[in-house]
UniProtKB/TrEMBL annotation:
This is Thiamine-phosphate synthase. The gene is thiE. It comes from Aestuariirhabdus litorea. Its cofactor is Mg(2+). The keyword tRNA processing does not apply. 4-amino-2-methyl-5-(diphosphooxymethyl)pyrimidine binds at Q35, Y36, R37, D38, K39, N67, T106, K136.
Length: 206
């Protein structure tokens, strides 16, 4: 289930009037998971957008995850949440969302954090950033070979994030990433649908 292109939305790249259209193009291009990530204030706007994305994702049978915000995930009946090390604890999210929810955990460059997340019942672990990221330039870097070690030591799906593009995605997929989480290279593209197709197609080579 956690396999292929994992698209993440961004409030700067996608203002409210462009968000649904851009996401639908990505879904048409074969995105396998979608994360709604919006750190701007405005609970009512965020709820409205998340509900809209949930309807779109349902049409394409794609799970919607919500970044950081458990209450929003519950309110829009999302498939799950993505949590960082400074966010809500995995155990609380699992207890509130139930055993079937998708819960992803950011592990930066740490196999120890990943083992902890695996033991705690995470659905996937995310490592990164692997390349320069336009969206989050200050995210701590992670070495590509971390994925090889993670692949041999963990049984959970591995998500790679941070500066992933059509030109470098093969480097993380060939080292064991099950999914690539992408913001800028997808949503800044002039043809989002085609870019989604191109990013997904890289998995066929491995
Ligand atoms: C798939 C995926 N991986 C990592 C992150 C980053 O989460 P976090 O460290 O909590 O940072 P913010 O996204 O909240 O800024 C993610 N969102 N998704
Ligand atoms: C949200 C996020 N988290 C990261 C991490 O390393 O934890 S990198 C990142 C931004 C990903 O966007 P882009 O594909 O534009 O680089
Ligand atoms: Mg977070």
């Amino acid at each position: 289930m956690i396999k292929g292109l994992y698209a993440i939305t961004d409030a700067c790249l996608l203002p409210p009037d462009q968000l649904p259209g851009a996401v639908e193009q990505a879904l048409r291009g074969g995105v396998r998971l979608l994360q709604y990530r919006d750190k701007e204030p405005g609970d009512a706007r965020r709820l409205e957008q998340a509900l809209h994305l949930k309807r779109l994702c349902d049409r394409y049978s794609v799970p919607l995850l919500i970044n950081d915000d458990l209450a929003l995930a519950k309110a829009c009946q999302a498939a799950g949440v993505h949590l960082g090390q400074g966010d809500l604890k995995l155990q609380q999210a699992r207890a509130e969302l139930g055993p079937d929810a998708l819960i992803g955990i950011t592990c930066h460059d740490s196999l120890e954090l990943a083992r902890e997340a695996q033991q705690g019942g995470a659905s996937y672990v995310a490592f990164g950033r692997f390349f320069h990221s336009h969206t989050k330039p200050d995210a701590p870097p992670a070495p590509l070979d971390l994925l090889l070690r993670a692949r041999s030591q963990l049984h959970l799906p591995l998500v790679a994030i941070g500066g992933i593009t059509v030109d470098n995605a093969a480097q993380v997929i060939s080292r064991g990433a099950d999914a690539i989480a992408v913001i800028h290279d997808l949503f800044s593209s002039r043809d989002i649908e085609q870019r989604a197709r191109d990013l997904n197609r890289i998995f066929d080579r491995f």
